[in-house]
Design a protein that fits this description.
By secondary structure, the protein is an alpha+beta fold. It has one domain. It is 22% helix and 46% strand. The protein has 4 helices and 11 strands. The strands form 2 sheets. A 9-stranded antiparallel beta sheet has the order 4-3-11-10-9-8-7-6-5. Strand 8 and strand 9 form a beta hairpin. The longest helix is centred in the first third of the chain and has 14 residues. The protein is globular.
């Protein structure tokens, strides 16, 4: 366990691409990553597919790049890289030997923050993003919404929303968007 802590602290300094706030904590420039992925899809010559499942009913279809951008904007809205947001989050780094990646984890200092967790998996050799996981929890009037967003670099993303009202109504929606992935 102590070796992991030492490795984590040492390797945290070697991960590139981060921004630094006033207390020298590095934040990975996630918005730059998402914007580049969106541009790559926009300029790419491959079709974009969506699988949508709402309360157990599933449908799949081809979508336009404009619809793709609309769904992808969900990820851009979860930006914690601004100085005002950085002070609300803490970063930790973990070197996962089983996945051959570094995991950058961002957690809010307050439980009232809608963004509850961000995990960014970076390839241990290239420091390029492999996956991003973002979890948000929002209370909107009498409805509690938990959203789990997952981006697989250069392949796909999905947005899962689970909603529950105080009156007992439950809704589960999955949107899986693929442009270069074999999972369909």
């Amino acid at each position: 366990m102590m070796l992991l802590v030492f490795t984590t602290c040492h390797n945290k300094k070697t991960i590139s691409g981060g921004k630094t706030n006033s207390d020298s904590t590095k934040f990975y420039p996630l918005q730059t990553f998402f914007n580049q992925q969106i541009v790559d899809v926009d300029l790419g010559a491959f079709p974009v597919f969506q699988i949508k499942e709402v309360n157990g009913k599933r449908d799949s279809f081809s979508i336009s790049k404009e619809i793709f951008k609309s769904y992808a904007s969900e990820f851009l809205q979860k930006d914690i890289s601004t100085p005002a947001m950085q002070v609300k989050f803490t970063e930790s780094v973990f070197h996962d030997l089983s996945t051959k990646s570094y995991t950058l984890n961002y957690r809010p200092k307050s439980v009232d923050e809608p963004i509850q967790n961000i995990d960014i998996l970076l390839d241990e050799n290239t420091n390029l993003v492999k996956r991003v996981f973002i979890r948000t929890e929002i209370q909107h009037q009498d409805t509690s919404i938990v959203e789990q967003c997952n981006w697989k670099a250069n392949k796909s993303f999905q947005i899962n929303r689970f909603s529950k009202t105080k009156g007992g109504y439950v809704s589960n929606e999955l949107n899986y968007i693929s442009w270069n992935d074999s999972k369909k």
